[in-house]
Structure formats: structure tokens, C-alpha cells
Amino acid sequence: MQKKILEFDVVVLGSGAAGLSAALKLAEKGLSVAVVTKRDIFDTNTRYAQGGVASVTDKDDSFDAHVKDTLTAGDHLCKADVVRRIVEAGPAAIRSLEKYGLHFTKRGEIGEEKNASGYDLGKEGGHSARRVLHSGDITGEEIEKTLVGACRRQPRIEIFENHVAVDIITSAKLGWMGEDFALGSYVLDAKSREVRTFVSAATVVACGGAGKAYLYSSNPDVASGDGIAMCYRAHVPILNMEFFQFHPTILHHPKEKSFLISEALRGEGARLLVRGADGRLREFMENYHHLGALAPRDIVARAIDNELKRSGQESAFLDITGKSRDFLRRRFPGIFAKLMSLGIDMSKEPIPVVPAAHYCCGGAQTDYAGRTSIRGLYVAGESACTGLHGANRLASNSLLEALVVAKFAAEHISANFKGLRGERPSGRIPLWRSGNATNSDELVVVSHNWEEIRKFMWDYVGIFRTNKRLERAKNRIKNIRKEIEKYYWDFHLTRDLVELRNLSSVAEIIVDSSLGRKESRGLHYNADYPDRDPDMDGVDSVIKKPYRS
Ligand SMILES: Cc1cc2nc3c(=O)[nH]c(=O)nc-3n(C[C@H](O)[C@H](O)[C@H](O)COP(=O)(O)OP(=O)(O)OC[C@H]3O[C@@H](n4cnc5c(N)ncnc54)[C@H](O)[C@@H]3O)c2cc1C
Q1: Would you say 24 and 157 are in contact if contact means Cβ atoms under 8 Å apart?
Q2: Is the pTM of this model over 0.90?
Q3: In terms of Cα–Cα distance, which of 517, 460, 474, 523 is closest to 244?
Q4: Can you tell me the distance from the alpha carbon of 270 to that of 203, in angstroms, rounded to the nearest whole number?
Q5: Ligand 1 pocket test: which of 399, 404, 405, 496 has the largest number of ligand atoms within 8 Å of its C-beta?
Q6: Of 505, 157, 462, residue with least CA distance to 306
Q7: I need a labelling partner for 271 at 20 to 30 A (CA). Which of 63, 355, 361, 512 fits?
Q8: Of the listed 271, 297, 393, 495, which one is catalytic?
Q9: How far is the CA of 513 from the centre of ligand 1 (A)?
Q10: How far apart are CA 57 and CA 95, in angstroms?
Q11: Ligand 1: distance of its center to the CA of 187 in Å?
Q12: CA-358 nearest atom, ligand 1
């Protein structure tokens, strides 16, 4: 018989860079930790990161420059004090990864510069210096493997795979008086389909982003916004969800829906093309920006989106056939091999690409240490909105944020652990009550609603927004939400149903945040308000679930 109630000092929800870093730091402070993750431990956004981690390590670089670049990208919406704290903690986060065994590529290792020393630093859009540390072109995978290995070696950490967090248990939700405390979480064991109660003095939500709210996304299936939706239901304010970053070039192929084609291809001269009514491919980026295909990421994504909507075509194309096969194989080994496995020879034919949802800048409101409005509830990584990214994320700042905020959260929890444990209200936490009905057409309903949400989010709440499109989306999501809520409480919980409910909730928050912002700023573009409103500098969008009066 499985235990229905489990107790740990801290429960960490999620096994990406944020979750595993927090778990390790907490365990090193002597606390018992559960890592709860909804599929295999490796199923994360972290694992897919290609570029690397932004951090100041070079003598010609400076914290001031990194802070300035971050603030510029964030378009007057970052929190300057948070930016500085996170940027300055970068080098320690890098050292910590190295201590667990991660190897970042060094300059002498990549061929031409045999005697060079120091890290091989990448330069990405918006950075004024080379400051992106990487492990070849599989940085995320190396980080994930390193952290998983360290967690598995740590005796104070217990890992629960295929366990889906359903809701945070708070004293306010149970109707208890006094300060609102996080008491634990309800977690669905996806195999036994039982909901277990995890009791803990602190809970760290590190459930990643919400890219799956959109039809096209670079994110894996786990990115259904669960952390953000759970925090919303716990009455934590959700900030700035209208700022969703779209990557301009994701491979468009029926067998490979999320594969990212690096911006470095355009850096090496790839042209962006779209098929016209006469069937011919033509360039279009000069009509949008003086830098053509090398324009900033959000402008390229918006231009492709506009061209596709105008022409009715399914994809644009990246053409790098001007380079030799040999060069492409050496410069882009991962991309070359992946495309060949799908029958696309990039040296001979253009690559079909679409823009896709990539990174969620908004999330649950926290400070730099992941603290929320609820005592004992912390959020780190892509589920959180610390104020680092503002209206647009600077490339490779997200892994930095996940690592640093997780560490600060762990330090805060351990320093305040006595109070978290001693001052929380005591009482019997009720077991989860699930609906009993089962229904053979449940899967059809789930997949139908899932597809519908992702499609209208793409069409109406994507890269190019208007009031009319947003209003349409609002009407659609309201009806779907009603249907899902009924299903949720009547039927047996499944992982799909939990994810669908969260996805729909996050989609509604994105729509509401977008409707609320009467200007265009950073990643949010509404053609009815095409300009930035200076009065809105530093003003966050806030969506908070009201308490019942
Ligand atoms: C293709 C791609 C390339 C990228 N490249 C870069 C880059 O080069 N540099 C950079 O800085 N950033 C990059 N990013 C962004 C970066 O990878 C993510 O922002 C970061 O990894 C997020 O870490 P996280 O720990 O917050 O979330 P994740 O790594 O996504 O982990 C979330 C975890 O939560 C689990 N989870 C979710 N819901 C539940 C639930 N209900 N119950 C239990 N567990 C749950 C998931 O299964 C997963 O284990 C990239 C992202 C993608 C998709």
C-alpha cells in the first residue's frame, strides 16, 4: 500500500535547472527534500537549451554592462535592484555548477585558438559583450545531467517521477484564520491515479513555462503552465503574462514540432524567404528592418508572422544553400544531423521554419529570492516573475535566473526554517476529494479543448495582437473554461486533465493581461495601441484571483 500522506522539510515541484538547484542547496543545508516531477526527471525546458548561460566572467566585461543590456532589453519594465542582484550572483552560480561536475567549453578546446585561455564565450542578440557560457551546443542537456546526477547522489533528496502537482495547500484555502501559510501540496501519482498529500514547511514551485499554450512552440509537452496556474489558484498575484517571447525560427516539420534552428544560421548569412502567389520564394526582411534578416528576434518573428498571415502559407524558409556542405556540417553539427535525419539537406534546400512560443517572461510574483505573498511558498525559474526580464528577456538570462533565484530561495528557507515550521498553523489537512466518474470520451474532450486553445491563442493572442482578436479569444476561453471546470470536478483526475485545466487558466491570464495593457511594449504588440506609453514605465500587469468574500 502506498503512503497517502508524506512529510518532508521542503517539497520542490519540478526537476529543471531551478528545481534541482534548489533541492541540492536545501539538502546541503541539512533539510529533507522531495523533488516531485510530472514525467521523467529529464522532461524539462532546461534540457533543450542550446545557447548557454549569460554571466560576466571576462575581464573586458562588467556587471554594469550586463545590467545595462538587461534593462535595455526589458523596455523600461525590469526591476533594477533585482537585475543587479541576479547578474552579480552569476559567477557564483557558474562555479557551483562546475563543482557538481559541469564542464563549460574553454577557448583552447574549439580548434583555431590552441593556446587561448578562459571560457569560450558566445555573443548573442542584445549583449554588448561576449558573455554566454556554453557546453558545446547542448548546454541545457549537460546542466540537466549534472544536476540530476548530483541529486541522485544526495541522500537527503527523494525523487518522485510521474507525480503531478495538482494544487498548493494553503491555510487560507482551508479557511484557517491568521497569516496565509503554504502547508504542502496535493500530488497525483500518474501511475496509480491516486492523489497523495505532501506536507512540508516550505514549497518551491519550479514548474517551468507555458509554451504549450500556443500551437507552435519550442517547448516540450511539460510546459503547460502548471506552476503559474497553481500559484494563481493559491491567490498569488500573476504578473506580466502578456510578454511571451516568440522565437523566429523553429523547424516546421510534421515529425519534429519543436526543434529550434539557431539564430547563428542568420549570423552566417542565411536568408529568410516566403513563397509568393506566383509560387516563387522571395526575401522580405528588408521591408521590416534596416538589418534585414539580422534584425532583433521579436521583429523577425513579427515579420514572419505577418508574411504568413498575408500569404496564407504554412511556413517561411531559411536558405543557407550559399554555404558549402562541409562548412555547414562543421559549424552546425546538431542541426545538420537532425535535418538529415528528416530528409532535409540544408546545403541543397531551404529549411521550412515558423516562429513559435519560446519563453514566458511573466509568472508568479516573487522577489529576488523567490518569495511570494504566501509564507513558505517560493517560486523559481520560468514560473516566476522576479522583475529580471521586464517586457523582453535578454538571451540566455533565463538559465541564469533559474540557478540564482533557486539558490537564494534555498538560503532564505534554511535561514528561516525554524519560523516556517514553528509558526505555521496546525490542524488536520484534508485528503483530496476527487470526482468518481470515469468517462470513455474524456480523452477526446481533453485533446479537442487542448487543440482549440492552442490554435486560437496562436491566431488571436500571438505575435501580432488587436483588440478585436483579443476579445474573440476572451469569448472562446470563457466557454472552454466552464466546460473544463465541470469535467475537472466530476471525473477521475488524470495528468491530461490537470494539464488542460492549467493550460486553459494560463491562456485566460495571458488574454486578460494583454487586454489590460493599452500600449505596445517589448514583446507585447497591439496594433490598436502601436506605441509605448511612458506613463506605463515600470507598471506591471497584475492578475490576482479574488478571495471569496
Ligand atoms: C529550445 C529551448 C532553448 C532554450 N535556450 C536557452 C538558452 O540557451 N539559454 C537560456 O538561458 N535559456 C534558454 N531557454 C529557456 C530555459 O531553458 C528555461 O527558461 C529554463 O530551463 C527554465 O528552467 P525551469 O527549471 O524554470 O523549468 P524547466 O526546466 O522547464 O523545468 C520544469 C519542471 O517542472 C516539471 N513540472 C511542470 N509541471 C509540473 C507539475 N504539475 N507537477 C510536477 N512537476 C511539474 C516539469 O516536468 C519539469 O521537470 C531555452 C528554452 C527552450 C525550450
Answers
A1: yes
A2: yes
A3: 523
A4: 46
A5: 399
A6: 462
A7: 361
A8: 297
A9: 22
A10: 11
A11: 20
A12: 53
The label of the residue with cell 516556517 reads 420
Is 464:525 a contact under the CB 8 Å cutoff? yes
What domains can be seen in the chain, in order of their start residue? 5-162+220-241+363-422 (3.50.50.60), 250-354 (3.90.700.10), 432-516 (1.20.58.100)
* Cell numbers standing for residue 245: 517571447
Cell of 262: 539557431
Ligand 1 shell residues, CB under 6 Å: 13-19, 36-39, 43-46, 48-53, 140, 164-165, 206-208, 218-219, 222-223, 226, 260, 359, 381-382, 396, 398-399, 402
Task: Compute the distance from residue 529 Cα to the ligand 1 centre, in Å.
Answer: 32
- pLDDT tens, per residue, the chain with 549 residues: 778 999 999 999 999 999 999 999 999 999 999 999 999 999 999 999 988 899 999 999 999 999 999 999 999 999 999 999 999 999 999 999 999 999 998 887 755 555 566 898 887 778 888 899 998 878 999 999 999 999 999 999 999 999 999 999 999 999 999 999 999 999 999 999 899 999 999 999 999 999 999 999 999 999 999 999 999 999 999 999 999 999 999 999 999 888 999 877 887 789 999 999 899 999 999 999 888 888 878 889 999 999 998 888 999 999 999 999 998 887 788 889 999 999 999 999 999 999 999 999 999 999 999 999 999 999 999 999 999 999 999 989 999 999 999 999 999 999 999 999 999 998 999 999 876 666 656 667 788 899 999 999 999 999 999 999 999 999 999 999 988 888 787 778 889 999 999 999 999 999 999 999 999 999 999 999 999 999 999 999 999 999 874
Q: Which atom of ligand 1 is nearest to the CA of 400?
A: 11
297 catalytic? Reply is yes
Residue from 13, 35, 36, 46 whose mutation best tests the ligand 1 pocket (most atoms within 8 A of CB): 46
Q: Which of 13, 44, 137 to mutate to test the pocket of ligand 1 (most atoms within 8 A of CB)?
A: 44
Name every residue whose Cβ is closer than 8 Å to that of residue 10 and which is 6 or more positions away in sequence: 23, 26, 31, 32, 33, 34, 200, 201, 202, 203, 204, 413
Q: Which three cell numbers stand for residue 450?
A: 487542448
CB 413 within 8 A of CB 206: no
Measure the CA–CA gap between 227 and 168, rounded to whole angstroms: 9
Q: Which residues are CB-neighbours of 212 under 8 A, at least 6 positions away?
A: 219, 221, 223, 224, 225, 454, 499, 503
